[in-house]
Amino acid sequence: VSFVRASHRPLHKMEITCKEANVAGNANSFDWFPAEQGLYNPKHEKDSCGVGMIADLAGAASRSIVESALLILENLDHRGARGCEVDTGDGAGILCAMPDSFMRRKFQELGVELPPQKSYAIGNVFLPRVEARRAEGKRIFESTCASIPGLRFVAWREVPVCSDCLGKTARSFEPAIEQCLVVGSGPLATDARRFEAALFVLRKKAAKAASEAADTPLYICSLSSRVINYKGMLTCPGLARYFPDLLEDDFQSHVALVHSRFSTNTFPSWRRAHPFRYICHNGEINTLRGNINAMRSREGLMQSSVLGPQLAECFPLVELDQTDSGIFDNVLEVMTLAGRSLPEAMLMMMPQAWENSRAVPDEWKDFFRFNAALMEPWDGPALICFTDGSGVGASLDRNGLRPCRYYVTKDNKIILSSECGVLQNIPAEDILHKGRLSPGKMLWADFSEGRLRHDGEIKQKLAMSQPWGSWISKEGVSMAALVPSKEGMLGAKMPAVTSQWSEAGGQLERLRAFGYSHESLELLLLPMGRDGEEALGSMGNDAPLACLSKQPRSVFDYFYQLFAQVTNPPIDPIRESIVMSLSCW
Fold first, then answer.
1. What's the CA gap between 533 and 574, in Å, rounded?
2. Residue 26 carries which DSSP code?
3. Of 559, 417, 476, which is closest to residue 74 (Cα–Cα)?
4. In 119-250, where do the E strands start and end?
5. Do the Cβ atoms of 182 and 223 come closer than 8 Å?
6. Sheet of 413-417, strand order
7. Of 468, 467, 441, 472, nearest in space to 454 by CA
8. In the predicted model, what is the mean pLDDT of residues 75-91?
9. CB of 448 closer than 8 Å to CB of 392
10. Cβ contacts of residue 373 below 8 Å, gap of 6+?
């Protein structure tokens, strides 16, 4: 097996570096996983984890929010995983609002006065540990920042860490972690949306430039004026021990998302730990290949009034060597930069099953139908918590195969997790409301409103925000309007087929030539024609794969839909059509 290491580490005798520089795990990462070989492909890396979230609905920052989040994370330790070493975890992290008082104090110690809140951005950056390569990575970042109008690089701050708490494997790939301070000037100092867009361009261009440089890994965990994340190849209890920043009294926040990673059948790494820049995710995205292809195909037609010509310099918009969760986060970020709210972008990417449900109002269906033509569903199973600092929410995909429980307390806090009991010090009389998310449902708290919005209110507001139905009736085109059938249009009732299988006219020879057998006719095709549904059976199929078979096989045997290998029991889209859908628009 050919493993890839960070280039600044000496190789042990049994380790072999990759021959190709462009495979996953090259110098643009801090990972430990094989190069693509045999039946292994890094593109299939997925997560299945524990998530937690706590927030003050009024947006009041406090130390208790951070401490409670760290306690939630410790109580989710069993949802994550470790390797052969007790101190090497699959990953753990926290995403919280920018701790303004803490950052002001720390940068003041470096002789730097921070400008007003929301006009500066700070992010944690993974850099090489070798001093010369680290300096080159910082030079790339600074020069890229200087090339973007309205951005000014100010300073670096070395993040204090406790490397002694790391296991041997995690420590062997440990990056140097520094915080960059970037300030907005001119229009960017007062326009939060354009400031975030410029920071997005900086991050994408710097990462691309570093990937083209030799032996200069560079990964920007986050770069925002609103939020910051601390993460790594850590255990849940090890997060706060590794990052002493998280234990400081003035490290305060009004919202915090935490994540305990279980890298399902995959390899742990520093940069693949959650949370990402907007989300943390429990589950997997099983439509990922199609989602990536669709996003890449859109890039040639994309335009942006905010990013302008710099948009093309950010392609590809998805980080192709990230996990399914990281790629989901990439697309969600692009959607919000385009001007959509986080709840709207999430509903476009993870819509509920609406086509076959009579309980869904027509105006909701118009919203989903219009946006289905813009974005295909990202199907899980998936529970996703998300925040941009101004609000926080959670959503289940339309399959709904991941648990999500939440409490709202009398002191105006929301606590949400992938299981109950993550905070055990809450008296029952202090709980104002509690519940769980159902398939396709969402909740969202806007801190400027100081309250929690539930699924119906969120979707009704978005459904009434634009004349979706009117746009569809005026501009929509259906296949039925394009393809004529024998009786007029596609979808019209066709005459019943009365022909039978026979040896007359060479029909049997043609069936043999195209690989049909008596079993396929009697057990598969006959029930579909007779009952209008696919036949179900409980017997195993011990026939070899078509690509490995020595016998001639039907062309259809070579093409099967990919299915979640951890979904149990299997889903029947006919019997469970109310809570799921396989439709594409």
1. 9
2. S
3. 417
4. 120-127, 151-158, 176-184, 219-220, 227-232
5. yes
6. 227-232, 92-97, 255-260, 50-56, 413-417, 405-409, 431-436
7. 441
8. 84
9. no
10. 585
Q: Which residue type sits at 503?
A: E
Residue 446's SS3 state is strand
Q: Give CA separation, 564 vs 384, 405, 568, in Å.
A: 18, 24, 9
Tokens representing 230?
Answer: 């601390």
Whether the per-residue pLDDT at 115 is higher than 70: the answer is: yes
What is the tens place of the pLDDT at every residue in 387-436? 999 999 999 998 888 899 999 999 999 999 998 889 988 999 999 999 99
Please name the residue that has the structure tokens 């078979």.
Answer: 549
Residue type, 407: Y
- Which residues are 443's β-sheet partners? 394
Residue 49 among the catalytic residues: yes
Q: How far apart are CA 162 and CA 171, in angstroms?
A: 11
Q: How far apart are CA 57 and CA 173, in angstroms?
A: 39
Catalytic entry in 18, 49, 314, 404: 49
Smallest CA-to-CA distance from 56 within 447, 419, 418 is with: 447
How many Cβ atoms sit within 10 Å of the Cβ of residue 123?
23
Nearest C-alpha neighbor of 121 from the set 222, 52, 260: 222
